[in-house]
């Protein structure tokens, strides 16, 4: 019993459950208070010691079923291949000796033999690895899972071939039972790969505040939002924006409030010999400014641009003027649309605007030339220029010198890039050419980053 619980605790740790030595010792001491052969009591005891939250309970239940049911080879049920333990071990050893160059294959072979720790540890690594360490291509986190699936399939085919080669002719019954056993183990390995231990239980959700909604979905990439999530985030952002606008309005309304100005107070009181005391405050100058936005609306970049336009639309009262432009291969002024319509209607009209060629190749160079020719007078020393885009020019002239001229005319140039930072400058990306002409270039792949930027811009 001691070894069994220790092995189970090791598997749980490999899968990400935090289990201390003290909790294992508590479980062993408490075994004297129950009947270990009564599985509901045994399971409840281990769950009470090893699972510390609702999420952990679901994860624990999956690991318990895997370890004490799916991986068992010591029961009387012939389906569990109880009579063929040695043959299972020998087959797994042969699998590990076969030529291969991936340690995941060894982990799968151990799993087929009955030791799930290595495979659980590998799957846990895939679930918790940092985004920066993921494969640098568009499939992203699917790459690691795909490799594990390939190794499972490879081991399954090899095990089936070994069973047919060594046992099919001499002992057909054994061959059939071994084949069934390995098929069940392979199915268990695949189910582990698709299992998400951190998923919320269906009945445990609680009403979320706007801050919690933004925190919960805030790290999710714009392009991966579902339609329902877009609506949820839009409502949450609208309420948070109202809070920002209230802060700004109070700041502008209370002109004679602020920090105490000691020098002015003493100077004003000097002519009365300090009596009465005339308190003076430092006046807060209005910080309203003009905003000019250029938003790339091609492909997946449109998701980030849509949220950016939503926020800027809601915050128009915080600025003297907001001029909005969208572009794919050339510039289109949508300022009047956003001024005259509600945001959802405005975005619909932008999508239907005839001079926006959504099927064209993105051309930042032509966009900058168009702006220089027709809209350069919008840029003044009170203007903040915000560009939303990935900087991918389809190998056309980036015209970065024009961006330098635009920088000289305005107060700040801020570039928001919705692409992963490790992809900046790769392929047709010219973001590195544009960076010297910007005061700030920052990633903006999710709502948290975008809202942080808006707070800094407004407050």
Description:
The protein has 459 residues and is an alpha/beta fold. The protein folds into 2 domains: 2-129 and 137-194, no CATH class; 228-238 and 287-458, von Willebrand factor, type A domain (Rossmann fold). 54% of the residues lie in helices and 7% in strands. It is built from 19 helices and 6 strands. Strands 3-2-1-4-5-6 form a 6-stranded mixed sheet. Helix 17 (400-409) links the parallel strand 4 (383-388) and strand 5 (412-417). Helix 10 crosses helix 11 and helix 11 (227-253) packs parallel to helix 19.
Q: Any idea how many domains?
A: 2
Reading side by side through the largest sheet, how are the strands ordered?
A: 3-2-1-4-5-6
Largest sheet: 6 strands, mixed
Radius of gyration: 32 Å
Uncertain ranges: 74-82, 130-138, 199-207
Oligomer: single chain
Beta-strand portion reads 5-15%
The counted number of beta strands is 6
What number is the mean pLDDT?
78
What is the rounded distance between the termini? 62 Å
Structural class: alpha/beta
Put simply, the count of helices is: 19
User: Which word captures the global form?
Assistant: elongated
Order of helices and strands: HHHHHHHHHHHHEHEEHHHEHEHEH
Helix content: 40-55%
Write a compact overview of the structure shown.
The protein is an alpha/beta fold and 459 residues long.
